[in-house]
Amino acid sequence: MLPFFATCPKGLESLLTDELQHLGALELQETVAGVAFKGSLETAYRACLWSRLASRIMLQLSDFSMRSDMDLYLGAANVEWEQHIQPGQTFSVDFSGGNNEITNTQYGALRIKDAIVDRLNRLRGERPNVDKRMPDVRILAHLKRNQLSITLDLSGPALHQRGYRQQAGEAPLKENLAAAILLRSGWDKSSPLVDPMCGSGTLLIEAALMATDQAPGLLRRRFGFNAWSGHDDALWQSLKAEASVRATRGLKQCTTTLYGCDQDSRVLGFTRENAVAAGVAQLIQVDRGTLTELTNPSEQTGWLISNPPYGERLSDFPSLLGLHQTLGEKLREQFKGWHVSLISSSPELLSCLRLRPEKQYRLFNGALACELRNYRIADDARPARPVAEDFANRLGKNIKALEKWANKEGIDCYRLYDADLPEYNAAIDRYREYLVIQEYAAPKTIPEHKAQARFFDLVQATMAVTGVSGDKVVLKVRARQKGTEQYEKLDRREQWLEVQEHNARLLVNLHDYLDTGLFLDHRPIRKHLGELARGKDVLNLFAYTGTATVHAALGGAKTTTTVDMSKTYLAWAERNLRLNGLGGRQHQFIQADCLSWLTQPGADYDLMFVDPPTFSNSKRMDDAFDVQRDHIKLLGMLSRRLRPTGLLIFSNNKRHFKMDLEALAELGLSAKDITKASLPKDFARNPHIHNCWEIRWSTQS
Prior knowledge:
Its main location: cytoplasm. Keywords: Cytoplasm, Methyltransferase, RNA-binding, rRNA processing, S-adenosyl-L-methionine, Transferase. With 701 residues, the protein is of the alpha/beta class. It has four domains: 2-153, VC0802-like, CATH 3.30.2130; 175-218 and 247-376, Rossmann fold (3-Layer(aba) Sandwich), CATH 3.40.50.150; 389-479, Transcription Regulator spoIIAA (2-Layer Sandwich), CATH 3.30.750.80; 515-700, Vaccinia Virus protein VP39 (Rossmann fold). It is 32% helix and 25% strand. It is built from 19 helices and 30 strands. An eight-stranded mixed β-sheet has the order 2-3-1-4-8-7-5-6. It has a seven-stranded mixed β-sheet with strand order 11-10-9-12-13-15-14.
C-alpha cells in the first residue's frame, strides 16, 4: 500500500473522494482542495487515467516537521532519490507555502534541489540536471506551518488537460470543473442535454466522455510517471488497453444526443474541432443562435446545463441581466419539466431568472467563487410576473409625460426618473437611445443585499418598460466625490456620443467618467446664457466641459473665456465648440486653479457663469474650498472682474445652501434667487438639485 494525494479545485473534495473510492482507493481523507488516499500503483494509474475531477495525482515521498533551514535540507536528503531518479534524468522542484523560517518559495525549492543533487552525487558520483520546463521527474513540496510534505508528481500536465482541446474561447471552463457540474446536476448520461451557451464545448464534450464510458486520460500523450524509475509500463499499457475497449464499446452503444448553441460562430468552430479530437463528434449537434431564438430541440425531457457569462465589470451587467432575464423566460416557455443546472460567480444574475433552485453548491472556477444552482422547471410553468411593478408603472407615466416635451424642446438628454419611489433609489437619464442609471447609496437601515436586489429589479424593469437593450444601458454608482475623484476614469472606452440640446450640439461620454460631461439640470441656465450673451464678453469659470460656453458662443458672444483646472475637460470643451463650427482667438481656454486665476490681473466681463464644486481639496489648489464657507470670498474676487452693467450667474449643488446677503451687500452686490425658474421640467420633483442666483452691482437694482 502506497500513500498518494490527489488535488482538485475547491468544492470538489467530496465528489473526488467518491470517485477515488470507486477506483479502488483506500483510507481516504479529505482536506481543502484535495484527498489523501492509499492504494497500489494500479490504483494510482487508474486515478490518472479515469479521474474526471482530480487536478494531480501525487506519490507521497516524505512528510516531516521542519522548523529550520537545516531541517528542510536534511529531511529532503533522507528521501531515497536514487529509487525515483535514474542516471542521466532531469528533475525539477516546485515549492509552495511557507513558515517563519522559509518565506521565499524559490529558496525552499533551491534547498530541496541541493539536497537531491548532493545525495545523488554522493551515491553515483554525478550530478543530475535540473529542467524546469520539461523535467523527467517533477517534485512537489508544500510547507504548511511547520510540516513539510514532499511528493512526486505522477500526472505531469494537470489532469484537466485531457488532450482534446484544440482551441478555446475566452475564459473556458476547466474540464474537471465541467465534469463536476455534470455530476452535481444529476444528469443520467442517457437523457438529452442542452447547453444554450456552449462556447468551445467543454460541458458537451465532458458529457459525451461520460456517456460513452471514455476515460478522460485516454487521449493524453504524457504523464508524469512515464520516465519515473518506479513506472510499470506493462501494467499501464494493460489499463490503457482496457480503457480503449470500453471507450469503443461505449461509443457504439451510446444513443445520447447532446445539443449546443452559441451566438459566436467562431467558438462553435472550436467546439466542432474539439469534439472531433475527442472522438465524440457524432454525439454532439451544435448550431449558431442567440438566446432569444432558443427552442427545445428534443421531444424528450432532459437536462439544460450551462455556464452563462457573468462578467466582472459593472458596465457588462445590464447586458448580462437582460441575458439571464431572457434565459428565465425561455426556460419557462420551452423547457417545461426539464432539469436545469447553471453555474455563475454572480448569484444576483442567477436570481434574475426568477426561478427557485432545488439545490445549491459552492464551487470554484480557479480562484473565483461560484454557485451552481439546480432547478426543476414545473410542467405547468407560467411566465414570471413583472418585476418592480410599482416602479415600472411610475417610469411609464414619466416617459409619457416627458417624451413630447423633450421633442418639442429639441433635447436628446433628460431625466426620466429620480428616486420617485423611496424603495427604488436611483436616477435614470436618457441620452438619445441610451439610458444611464445612477444608483444612490441606500440608507444604512436597509440591508445591503436587499438594496442590491431592488436595484437589480429596477434595472430589469427599466429595460422592460423602455425596450432599451442591455448594451445601451450604463450603470453608475453615485457617491459623494472629493478632490480630483470627479476627474478619475472609470473605463477607457473613449466612446463619444453627439447629442442635441436646443440649438447646441454637444459630446457626452457615458462610460469613462462618473459624470457624462453634461449636467442635465443646468439646461435652462445654459439656454438663458445663450439668450443673454450677444455682443458680450463671457466668462465660464469652473467650466467643466464648456457646455455653457457653447451656448454663449452660439448666442453671439463677442468673446468667451473658459477656465477649468482639468486639462481633460478643457480639451473636451474645445471639441464641443468645434462641433458647433465655433473657433478663433475670441474663444480662450485656460487651465488653472480658478481661485488662483482670479487673483491675477485680467480682463473684465459683461456676463459670468460660475458653478463651483461644493467642496474641493485638489492638490492643485492651495487651500480646500467649501462653497458655503467660501462663496463670499469667491464672489468678491469675481466682482473685481464684473463690469458695472454686468451680470454674474452663480450656481452650486449644495443642498440647503444659504447666500450671505448681508456680506454680499457689503461688497456692493445684490442677489436674486432664480432657482425655481432655472429648474427644468424633468427635475421638477427635485427642487434641491441645485440653487441659482443672479448677482449684479447694487447700483443696477
